[in-house]
């Protein structure tokens, strides 16, 4: 019963917005009734205005992909971690890198140990092997190089290499 009254009330509010006045009266059973038809003993009621907020239009910014945006590819050495100790410099050490985007035509990845180039690749490989590293502290860097030899992005780590003694 209450649902019917609530639905009637909501319908009446919607009808008021479309057609006009709403009347409230009490029927012979003592129930309050809302209607858009004037009863013999009813009075029109004034409903408060409905509080609404207009919808906000969301637009995606237009972004043109330019060569300079694509050249801003960053590189990160993911393994070994900065400050790592490489326990045996006599065996090959694997350097793992990641990039934000695939390399473009003419770009390459260059790996350096103490500013000495030890590996260069134009493929999508993310692993590079350094055959032997002398014992002591070293800086390993990875660069994305464009076709003109300019470094577009660089990541560096510091490692310490141990060598077993016999």
Structure commentary:
With 166 residues, the protein is mainly beta. The protein folds into two domains: 44 residues, no CATH class; 94 residues, Immunoglobulin-like. The chain is 13% helix and 38% strand. It contains two helices and eleven strands, in the order H-E-E-E-H-E-E-E-E-E-E-E-E. It has a five-stranded mixed beta sheet with strand order 5-11-10-7-8, with no helix packed on it. The mean pLDDT is 81.
Would you kindly provide a brief summary of this structure?
It is built from 2 helices and 11 strands; from the N terminus they run H-E-E-E-H-E-E-E-E-E-E-E-E.
Helix-strand blueprint:
Blueprint: H1 2-18, E1 22-26, E2 32-35, E3 43-45, H2 67-71, E4 75-79, E5 85-86, E6 93-99, E7 108-113, E8 116-121, E9 127-130, E10 136-145, E11 151-161
Parallel strand pairs: 5-11
Antiparallel strand pairs: 1-2, 1-3, 4-6, 6-9, 7-8, 7-10, 10-11
The count of domains is 2
* Shape estimate: rod-shaped
Poorly predicted sequence stretches spanning 5 or more consecutive residues = none
Specify the structural class: mainly beta
Helix content: 10-25%
CATH topology description of the largest domain: Immunoglobulin-like
How much strand? 35-45%
Total strand count, please?
11
The CATH homologous superfamily of the largest domain is called Immunoglobulins
Level-1 CATH class name of the largest domain:
Mainly Beta
Structural features:
single chain, about 170 residues, mainly beta, 11 strands, about 15% helix
């Amino acid at each position: 019963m209450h649902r019917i009254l609530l639905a009637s009330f909501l319908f009446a509010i919607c009808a008021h917005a479309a057609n006009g006045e709403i009347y409230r009266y009490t029927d012979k059973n003592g129930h309050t009734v809302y209607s858009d038809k004037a009863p013999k003993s009813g009075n029109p009621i004034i409903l408060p205005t409905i509080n609404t907020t207009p919808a906000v239009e969301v637009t995606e910014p237009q972004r043109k992909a330019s060569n300079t945006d694509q050249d801003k590819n960053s590189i990160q050495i993911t393994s070994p971690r900065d400050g790592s100790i490489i326990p045996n410099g006599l065996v090959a050490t694997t350097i793992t890198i990641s990039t934000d985007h695939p390399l473009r035509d003419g770009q390459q990845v260059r790996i350096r140990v103490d500013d000495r180039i030890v590996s260069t690749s134009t493929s999508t490989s993310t692993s590079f092997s350094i055959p032997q590293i002398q014992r002591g502290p070293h800086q390993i860097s990875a660069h994305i190089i464009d076709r003109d030899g300019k470094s577009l992005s660089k990541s560096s780590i510091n490692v310490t290499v141990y060598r077993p003694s016999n």
